[in-house]
Records
---
Amino acid sequence: MAYRHYNRLLYMYVLAIVIIAAAVGYLAAVNKSLFLVVILCCAEFFCILAFIRMLNSTNEQINYFIQAIKNEDTLLRFPVKNGSKIVDELHKSLNELNVVLQQTKLKNQVRERYFSEILQNIATGVVVVNEKGFITDVNRAALDLLGLSTFTHVMQLERVDKRFKEDFVKVGNQQQQMLFLRRGNETVQLVTRCSEIVVKDERVKLLTLQDIRGELEKKEIDAWVKLIRVLSHEIMNSLTPVTSIAQSLKGIWKKRVETSDAFLNDDDVESTISGLDVIGERGEALIRFVRSYRVLTRVPEPNLQPISIRSFFDRLTILVSPLREELNGNVMFKSPENDFHFYADEQMMVHVVVNLVKNALEALAGDGNGKVEVEAKNSGGNTEIFVKDNGQGVPDEIKDEIFIPFFTTKENGSGIGLSYSRQILRAHGGSLSCRSKPGETVFVLKW
């Protein structure tokens, strides 16, 4: 806003002070009437006094407004028709500024309420502690994890678990620690992360608490459910025909016993032999199934040796050659430009890579443009091997199940290859993962 009246009066005061000062100087220089000089000096004094009073009046209004804002009094309103155009202009500007501050405060309150609701509804516990140990903010998840109804100071944790309180206080900035909280007869494992921030000139710690036991139990239950579903399917596939055939054979021979018919015709003999063959076949299938299960429970300890990636790829090229011919597939091993060594059990790693290449070739069967590429890299001390194919990809509905033991989409598959391969990588302290989309599937070995 242009303060026209204020600026006009300001210029007038300054101009009058300058002119009077110049006149006094001139009269004093030419030794004119002393009385006139005194009169002009008095006029200069009163002009300066009026100028200062005007500035002080404006400053008082602004200071009053600032104090009201400090006290969060945004309802303050200044009269815009005060009789003085200068004051009216100032009041109008202060009222407009107050409206802007009100809107900003309202937006901040809405945003604060929004984030407060988010904080209260997330599953991760959040605690904000100042340097004196007072809790400035805490959400419901944190209270539930700590077993407290209210949490105002870290000393309250001594009533729950004194050791936990000591560890909780020691967590430093940018640290992540595993803390154990004893609540009654149970022990809760909490992953704690800490960040130090400055809020209103006060340094506080923002700590997050997460109960990993609950998450692990949930994932464990999910894994068991999926495993039991696969086991049930496999066992039922073998037992159903066995039970049905056994009942049929029992009916045949029971009927002969009841009728005292000792004569055996060829059909009965043939049916009995066929039924026994099926029972034997399904029994052998169940034995193979149990042996496969034993394999998963007996992963040997890896014998770690330094291995050259290029010699490793050369060996794989030879071992994969029969698969190329059998499945008529295109497999490329891309050795890195700079050879490097990694530590692993070579036999185990060969088993994993060959199994992944075989799976990829079987998935590409019948695709004339299908190809499998195997690459490797070493960064930050970690070794990664990538097995890629350009097939149709893994369907979304089974992406989470391909590593479950005995889960398979192949007609004659055992369903243990990927699960066993992942266990081998875990024995090496690494991981086996898969990312897939139409046209590209990549299995990543990392350790």
---
Amino acid sequence: MGTFGSMDTAIIIGLIAVYIIFTSWLTIKLRSKTSSEFMTGGRTTPAFVIGVLLMSEFIGAKSTVGVSQTAFESGMAATWAVLSAAVGFFLFGKFMAGRLHATGQITISGAIAQRYGRSTQLIVSLIMIYALLLVNVGNYVSGAAAVATITKTSLPVAALIIAIVSTFYFAFGGMKSVAYVSLLHTGLKYIGVFALLGTALYMSKGFGPVMDALPNFYFTPAGKVGWSSIIAFFIGNIGAIFTTQFIMQAISATKDARAARNSAYIAAGLCIPISIALGMIGVIAKFLFPEMKSLFALPIFMQHMNVFMAAMVAISLVASIFLGVSTVALAIASLIVKDFYVPMFKPTQEQEFKVTRYLSLAIGFFPLIFVFFAPGLLKLSFFTRALRLSIAVIAMIGFFLPFFSGNRGAIIGLLGSVVGTTVWYLLDNPYGIDNMYIALAIPAVVVFIEKLFHWNDRPPVSTEKVSAPAQP
């Protein structure tokens, strides 16, 4: 892969710095001034803004680069990795967004507690915190690699830049500023991806020559990805969308259930064009640079663009990293504060706001420990969607099959899923069965057995009696 000269690199770094300064100023202008604004943006954020945030935080830098990389290797079927998220957001809007918003909660664990009780709430919260911490370790490592490549800095320096900027965004601005700044981030991401696609199509003289030259599997529905993996994409993405904390927190920022549903539909629509564009970029890269490492399927075209256009693409990738880290860290802070700190200490609004800010600083920099000393842990990061899927199963049973929603079965199912899915993953998915299916099956089977043997006939416990009320 070619490289830019020193002057080109300096221009790109300078423009990235200008962008960071501008968005930092914007964060200050839009900063949250109360705990309610920090957690939910005061519940007044328009559906379109939240829809953009949902799409952008779920389809981050790893997905952007990863889809093109997989398309380079396995064909256009790689686009299912993001198209399945579009389906997930549509189903979420149809069946869950309004219901979750109506609970009045801002944490997924709080919503689930209304069906299962306080003990299940704590288990869900701990599993989600663990899963999201692993997600951000992955965001830091992959993001640092991208920033280091773009700016020609070392990995530790790049990781530190991500930590400082992202932590400032969410610790100082909260949900209110993160949601609005995401409009700029996502706009740049869209422009960047389609600028790359335009460059790729120009270099290949259209998509026709690509289809004529590459093997047929590059353009079949399953490609070399395979239906088993595609089904796992759907299960994992739908499960993660239905119960991931930052999704729950984002829709809580809308004014009512209808706006929450509309935001999910907007996110679904935004996922479709970008998924197809990313797949086409990867396939065209295979046609033009067949011997290249697949990791460079997307960034290779930056080397063939005007330096200012390449800088804009670089900014869009960096912005995607910042946004991904910020939203995940904000979700972790909300879980810790709402599920543990508030019930234990009963703080005032001012005390809660202050503690949330301090806690956010720690959460923002904590992943650096693993980036610097234990990068091998990144191999476990994709396992987080399976963890979140087990929570989705319990949530769906609680909302749609309340007859089966026993507290003891939910707890045993969640713990059994964490252990079983982890063991299955460490055994490298025996018999070709993805660990995602284990995460799907264990909670459902345990809850069914609980009801069959009447382990727990007590009705679900309302969270109104066992936990602090949601922010107004």
---
Amino acid sequence: MNIKNQFLILLSLSFAFCYSQKNQKTSIEKPNIILIIADDAGWNDVGYHGSEIKTPNIDFLAKNGVELNRFYVNPTCSPTRASLFTGRPASRMGIVAPIGDKSQFRLPDSIPTLPKLLHKRNYQSALIGKWHLGLQQSSGPKVYGFDYSYGFLHGQLDQYTHLYKNGDKTWYRNGEFIEEDGHVTDLITNEAIKWISEIRDPKKNFFLEVAYSAPHFPLQEEQKWKDPYMHSIKDSSRRDFAAAMSHMDNSIGILLDKLKQEKLDKNTLVIFMSDNGAMENWDSKNEYNGIHPSNTVLGDNTPLRDWKTSNYEGAIRVPCIFYWKDHLRQNKNNDYISVIDLLPGILSLAGDNNMPKNIEGKNIWPTVCENKTFTNREIYVRGHLQESLIQKPWKIIRTRHANTPADYELYDVEKDPQEKNNVLLQNETLAEKMKIALENQFKMDAKKVNYDKLK
């Protein structure tokens, strides 16, 4: 047997563990990858976590894939997306808060990004939906390596007029603003289907990001999406939120059906995640000229603490699933995983293990596929209100102030996932070590950030 055949056999065997017990076929073929991102979906806004919201298609992914039970993102949307595309904490690029209004802030275009790196492996890429890493066409997805892009540049929009909250245009296709009729959720889904079936090069592997606006406000759903909750959810705001989740979940089902129709389901890895935890409510009076009603209740992060923008678990620990038909066994993975780990994990599946030097994420694939555990792991998250550092099972949170010393909190998130008991004083030696580790991470951040509450 020659060396090439020996290598192929060993590589095939390394994949065998990942396959379901029903189908023990092996393969070394590179997968297509679809990354689906919900906007502001909380921990308890998916059915498989016990929510009253019906999400049968997301639940299908969880029941037939790998559920990441401790997946950490940033407290808000722009930073999570920056971390995803660069494999680094977003604060290294100065992005610690949403890029909003008429800001000129943007993701630096001089650093390697996921779509650029995938190009080297002959992948075609498309981003359909929310961008939020540069609000002008000159800082849109094409600059960062996407072959095709469609959707909206800002962080939110009216679901039917497709205008940003201050009236700016944001709906575009491939670098040009456009006008279309229809609900954003449907338009994003239709474009994704069209790209899969008509636009992409069928001779190439693809990376497709489908970034929904749902369930982010303003909530503008047809009655058919609200009807299933008329008796089970009394609060009208929460009912509207549930309708937005159901609408998105139905669209995910349409995408999964399209993969089957195109005979792509067996060689496509589907990843589902939320960009951050849910918001508690929304006061609409200063946005969209006040035409949309405020929402007293939005998402649900139960049983985790607090809401989007903080560094507590409710803001940064979110639903995430990996599904790959006949390749991944159903499993709940309890390893501590960060959004910065997605880039090296995806690149490894694309056959690229030569990571750029500035990548800080870890290859996620061994823990997803074989349930291997990361050891001696730090997960650093900086928001515009707080910073946190997680070293299993401990989490330290720092809240800085302009004229007084910072406040610190220490939690054992294994024993106390609700972060009710600050055990800083009972673990002073450990706390001091984690304070130093947190500060060391903080010092590596960009000096100029897009928002800091101390300024």
---
Amino acid sequence: MQVKTAISTVVPFQGWRAILANMGLLASALVLPAMTHVLDAPVRWLLPMHWPVILAGLVYGWRGGLAVGALAPLVSFTLSGLPSPIILPVMVAELATYGFLAGLLRERFSLNGHLAAGLAIIAGRLSYMGLAALMVPYSGGYWDYMAAALLPGVAAGATMILLLPPLAHRWVDRAVT
């Protein structure tokens, strides 16, 4: 079964197939960062945990996106100790915002996937900035910290906006048929 609006389509976040698929997206949100760390690749440039979260929102709506977004950093921390405890609440809020908003904008407001992903990324980054200002001690100054934390991921964010919506569209089409 699918939920259709005038412009957008998502797979409902209900039933065992949706739960298993979201568990797969959650698993990829754990494996991708682990592989990135093992390969000593630039995590802040690639944002490996963010991709499956936004994809979950675009495919399974706000419920699926919120679930994967909130759980990914928590499960990762439980299993690996990463992200660090000081940044964990900030990342939970950021990723939950990504998944929730990508799904909500796609499912309820009928925005196309590119716009939904872009607005979700902006809102997630704003939540990161707001909570980081309150929670993360940084001696170099707030704006220096934000530049170091957020600017490297701009290219990954733009790539997510370009690549994830067509992937989500294909996923939804195959889930429906």
